[in-house]
Amino acid sequence: MKASWDIFCSVVDNYGDIGVTWRLARQLVAEHQCVVRLWVDDLRAFEKICPQIDVELARQYQDGVEVRHWPAAWQAEAAADVVIAAFACQLPHAYMDAMADRERAPLWLNLDYLSAEDWVSGCHGLPSVKFRGVQKYFFFPGFQAGTGGLLREAGLLEQRHDFQRNRQAQLDFLQGLGVSPAADARLISLFAYENAGLASWLDVLAADAQPTHLLVPEGRILGDVQRWLGAEPLTVGSLRVRQALTIQVLPFVRQEDYDRLLWCCAFNAVRGEDSFVRAQWAGRPMLWHIYRQDEDIHLDKLEAFLSLYTRALSPGAKAAVLALWRAWNTEAPMADSWKNLLQHWPEVTKHTEQWCLEQGLQADLAAALVQFYLNWNQH
Ligand code: TRH
Question: For residue 275, which atom of ligand 1 is closest to its CA?
């Protein structure tokens, strides 16, 4: 019989929680024939990345996943064979009782945040707390052997290569978003949190000899773009030109289309967790705005990733990437580090593809979860 899975997602803020769990749920159904219920406490956030969601429905099917609104007042439900609490969210107490009341206890996992830090492989798969005899385990995504890997759908890299080889498909896709870049324009996407360093980057892009077309999905960075432009408020569809720089505000698009947007661009600024991984699968130079945490612990995570990501680069290219990413994440001026990166563009471009292929050799996170369940089931 097919295993049943319950994935619990509490939307803390932004779109990463739902972005990751929705991707995982779909993949478990499509590639592993699992029976999946995805419990989400905020369907409006879900709707942003998956517009076909009906926010009024307590229960609906999307891409074979049973999407359930996770209500504040929990109704009795039988527990599944595998229970995933995403990002340490607290399960309803009655559901935990239902887990313990099963004849055979379920596999209970905490799907953690992504980090490149060394300790992750040591903690991945370890037992965590117990509730009435039901053992919980840590499941850590990651970049290195011994971790749970990264979310990557079957055939994703092949699809991406085909798309990137097909100029017309890219132009048609961009056209659908109302984007018509000049033939010689460098296309950049910008998805980021508020960042005081943005103005200095826009200055240098505007003054550049090569034109840039900057695509900005609506969201938190728009205020900084607006301040730099100093004109009337930006809305979806706004198009502004300053010297060599064209800035265009895009609507938030469905997850699959966001991938295509990343695949079209020569450079992607991304943030958080899921877009950060998708930019790596895009195989193009990138810039990560990491989610800020108390006491700057995010900066340790940033450095851990950078040390892996830049390991194979020449000293000059490595210094350029480090300087740019550090400047962006400390909201420091970007002009020098951007100009320096341009000096190393061919090497960095080649390297990002290499990094993507290397990461693509790892088992993907959904497959690793299924394997974890199969191993656990044998004991
Ligand atoms: O939205 P985020 O900042 O989410 C964050 C991070 O996950 C962070 O680690 C977490 O602690 C915090 O939430 C609570 O960034 P992230 O992770 O990239 O998620 C954005 C999602 O939105 C991702 O799945 C891609 C998707 N997306 C679209 O579907 N369409 C779009 O147009 C855009 C710009 C994004």
Answer: 18
Cα distance between residue 256 and residue 361, in whole Å? 22
pLDDT at 231: 77
Q: Which two tokens stand for residue 240?
A: 């502004």
Residue to mutate (ligand 1; options 50, 190, 221, 273; most atoms within 8 A of CB): 273
CA nearest 273: which of 7, 8, 1, 24? 24
How are strands ordered across the β-sheet holding 65-69? 59-62, 65-69, 35-40, 4-9, 82-86, 107-111, 134-139, 127-131
Q: Which helix (H) or strand (E) holds 250?
A: strand 245-250
Cβ contact 201:335 at 8 Å: yes
What is the structure's pLDDT at 379? 77
Query: Which residue numbers in the chain have pLDDT < 70?
Result: none
Strands lying side by side in the sheet with 212-217: 239-242, 245-250, 212-217, 186-190, 267-271, 286-289
User: What are the residue numbers of the active site?
Assistant: 17, 273
Average pLDDT, the chain: 97
Distance from the alpha carbon of residue 273 to the mean position of ligand 1, in angstroms: 7
What is the Å distance from ligand 1's center to 15 Cα? Answer: 4
* Tens-place pLDDT, residues 199-230: 999 999 999 999 999 999 999 999 999 999 99
Q: Which is the closest atom of ligand 1 to the Cα of 11?
A: 14
Tens digit of pLDDT for each residue in 67-79? 999 999 999 999 9
User: Is 359 in contact with 143 (CB distance < 8 Å)?
Assistant: yes
Instruction: Report whether residue 255 contacts ligand 1, using a CB cutoff of 6 Å.
Output: yes
Asked if 221 and 192 touch (Cβ cutoff 8 Å), the reply is: yes
* pLDDT attached to residue 232: 83
Beta carbon of 272 within 6 Å of any ligand 1 atom: yes
Residue 16 Cβ inside 6 Å of ligand 1? The answer reads yes
The CB of 115 under 6 Å from ligand 1? The reply is no
